[in-house]
Amino acid sequence: MANLELLPINVAGEWRLGGGDVYDSLYPATGEPIARLRAASLADVEEAIQRADHAFRTSGWAQKLPHERAAVLHRVAQLIRENAERLAQQQRLDNGKPISETRALVASAAGTFQFFAAACETLEETITPSRGAFVTMSVHEPMGVVAAITPWNSPIASEAQKLAPALAAGNAVVVKPAEVTPLMALELAKLCEEAGVPRGIVSVLPGKGSVIGDAITKHPLVKRVSFTGGTTTGKHIAHIAADKMMPVSLELGGKSPTMVLEDADLDHAVAGVLYGIFSSSGESCIAGSRLFVARSIYDEFLTRLTEGAAALRVGDPASERTQMGPLITARHREGIERYVELGVSEGGRIRTGGVRPHGAGFDNGYFYTPTILEGLGNQARVTQEEIFGPVLVAMPFDTEEALIEQANDSIYALAAGVWSRDFKRAWRLGRAVQAGTVWVNTYKQFSVSTPFGGWRDSGLGREKGREGIFQYMEQKSMYWGT
Ligand code: NAD
Predict the structure, then answer these.
(1) Pair 312, 370: CB distance under 8 Å
(2) In angstroms, what is the span from residue 206 Cα to ligand 1's centroid?
(3) Per residue, what are the HEC states of 277-333?
(4) Residue among 204, 285, 456 to mutate when testing ligand 1 (max atoms within 8 A of CB)
(5) Of all atoms in ligand 1, which is nearest to the CA of residue 179?
(6) Distance 227 CA to ligand 1 centre (A)
(7) What is the residue with the minimal CA distance to atom 13 of ligand 1?
(8) What totals of helices (H) and strands (E) does the chain contain, helices first?
């Protein structure tokens, strides 16, 4: 084992070694350990939540005026910016994304804190005119201890997306990062502390989801869980939430359709489709993984798309030129390889990719080539199941009706893309496709002011947007007699 110092976790403001198992966080590009920590134990979970509840009641965080909490959150944003390069490099090591992507994620985390600081300042209560011998007021209260459970694919962005609004609302927050990417949540907790969030209001408890995440979710003092991760885990959490009568938001999986019409700007569409599926190595809930192309342009489009995919620069995430890094773990890569084999056994043809790259720099990392499969229908398992990797299934379509029927024929409904120069058709398709987010002539663009979430098995609830703060608050109506 490499000689790494054990990293402390954060138990309601106390930085100490967890009581659980020791495990290493590996750099996916080389398989080398980059950090070692002792995970949280069940006793740490109990202590953190009890102390977080105490801090919620006694630290004064919930009672601060909105603009006072906003000032602290603005400082968190500022500290993220001051530490941006260090955080981007650390996130690169933690999950192997190319440095250009991790820099963008860090910038988005700072923007999220800034946005919710501003949203916090605008928190105001509404007074409705009298409808009798009274006036009514609708006020919002923080909930207490809330939990944020996050996946490994964009740690700093998903953690900021939950921490910032939950803190803005005045809660104490317990973060459970993914096992394989614990570092960014720990860094954010340090910056929150430095910015002036009171001790005990933020905890970070790394560890196994089925043990630590489960215990956090079931804890009676946890009043809300905001979860991002797989649909199976999300359904499990929803069952626990139902038993506790606890509100929950679930940002889950996807199998998003991208639709290229015959009048699309093809240069633009080729670049957008490639980015939509292969950025982040396809390890993205919103990856455009089902491609529908008008039959009249299918051959030309696929030829150009295949050339583009084969030319993508796969390699060292530290290089500014790299467009696609490795996959998160060796096991995840094996799962993706099995899916590609399944696609071939279902009658699919590999247009490009489908192998591990060879040569210097690829020996020990979990690299895989950008892969395009065709010859399959929308009912094939590889077309229906979330692969969460760089695998695109391409299909031709004949009519708009058939296109919409197939695009919507999925258990998921997270995102969709439409490529067309015809505004009216794009509008029609954008309205007809069932998805939480629709991109027209662009893909994977985000704004923190725009709500995000999925329909059906892609989730429940919305994050981001000014309203995002209210998911971490309870609403109360007050009647005043006159
Ligand atoms: P996962 O469901 O395995 O794990 C997500 C988190 O939940 C981790 O922190 C994990 O430790 C924890 N967890 C696991 N079992 C748990 C349990 N029983 N109780 C409580 N917590 C538990 O998902 P993953 O493999 O880390 O992430 C990939 C999935 O996340 C994909 O399906 C992807 O589509 C989805 N995702 C969705 C979004 C979105 O916004 N919709 C964003 C990113 C990723």
Answers:
(1) yes
(2) 13
(3) HHHHHHCCCCCCCEEEEEHHHHHHHHHHHHHHHHHCCECCCCCCCCCECCCCCHHHH
(4) 285
(5) 11
(6) 7
(7) 209
(8) 14, 23
Contact by Cβ (8 Å): 278, 293? no
Q: Look at ligand 1, atom 32, and give the residue with the nearest C-alpha.
A: 230
Taking the CA of residue 216 as reference, the ligand 1 atom at the shortest distance is 20
Beta strands in 288-436 (DSSP E): 290-294, 349-352, 371-374, 391-397, 412-413, 415-419
Nearest to 253 by CA among 89, 45, 454: 454
Q: What is the DSSP letter of 314?
A: B
CB 114 within 8 A of CB 121: no
* CA atoms in the 13 A half-sphere facing the CB of 474: 14
Q: What is the pTM of this model?
A: 0.97
Pocket perturbation via mutation, ligand 1, pick of 23, 153, 248 by most ligand atoms within 8 A of CB: 153
Q: What is the pLDDT along the chain (482 residues), one digit of tens a residue?
A: 467 899 999 999 999 999 999 999 999 999 999 999 999 999 999 999 999 999 999 999 999 999 999 999 999 999 999 999 999 999 999 999 999 999 999 999 999 999 999 999 988 777 777 677 788 888 999 999 999 999 999 999 999 999 999 999 999 999 999 999 999 999 999 999 999 999 999 999 999 999 999 999 999 999 999 999 999 999 999 999 999 999 999 999 999 999 999 999 999 999 999 999 999 999 999 999 999 999 999 999 999 999 999 999 999 999 999 999 999 999 999 999 999 999 999 999 999 999 999 998 998 999 999 999 999 999 999 999 999 999 999 999 999 999 999 999 999 999 999 999 999 999 999 999 999 999 999 999 999 999 999 999 999 999 999 889 999 999 999 998 87
Q: How many CB atoms lie within 10 A of CB 479?
A: 10
CA distances from 161 to 185, 394, 465 (A): 12, 32, 10
Ligand 1 atom 31, closest CA: 230
Q: Which protein residues are within 6 Å of ligand 1, measured from CB?
A: 149-153, 176-179, 209-210, 213-214, 217, 228-230, 233, 236-237, 251-254, 285, 386, 388, 414, 454, 459
Instruction: Give nearest CA residue, ligand 1 atom 20.
Output: 213
d(CA 191, CA 292): 44
Cβ proximity of 56 and 171 under 8 Å: yes
Crossing angle (nearest 10°) for helices 66-82 and 84-95: 70
| Positions marked catalytic | 251
Say whether 436 sits in a helix, a strand or coil: coil
Place of tokens 């506790």: 244
